[in-house]
Amino acid sequence: MLRKNGFKKSHIKTFFANGATGINVPGELAHHVHPAAMKLALRYHIQTMCRSPHCVNSLVLYMNSPAKSDGTMYLWDINSDGLAVDAEKYYLKEFKEDISNCQAEYVHVIVDQSFSGNIADAFKNSNDHRNVVVFASGKDHEYAFDDEFTSHWAKANHTTECTWQVQKQIKNKASKSTPESHEGQRGEVRTTIFGAPCHVIPPFSNRELRHDYLGCQSLPTALWIKKLFADKNPWRY
């Protein structure tokens, strides 16, 4: 889904299990997988994406793991003892901290796991997450079923449709759960998954999308100058 919509392979990071097995795509070298067991590395990567100015325009976080009814996510049983300790759990509070006041223009969080509604609810009207929108596969008390939710997202037309539209369509099609969504400050995120405006008439041409939105975009000179000026004047507000 991300590759089809302008996200470069090198910019897509996967944290899964112990990271021992790569992801194989026909015709390509195996995609490197980082171990989810390394919780600090996972959190550091997300924090870096969010705390670096002008680093990310549209940040997409896809979450799919076993979860507790309070939204806590289980990363990996490192020592195979069947018991989950803090280092093996990603708490909802930690996730909120990691993407609070994120420097990305838009943060789309797609959660396909049991009790995912808890995560969506946690961001509702949050002042620290004005640019975050969470799309959950079900309500806070519902389980996730197979890959129904993920499959709908992967097959959707993201070229012109807002992520909100995609979620609405999925909600109408879902048969085993009730997908829901919430955002930090209503109205902040109304774009496609790669950050382009939606409802554009006439629609953007493929050339316009490639030039202005898909893949890496050049940062305007004015922003570079502004950043340099800010670095030289750290106490100026």
Automatic annotation (TrEMBL):
This is Uncharacterized protein.
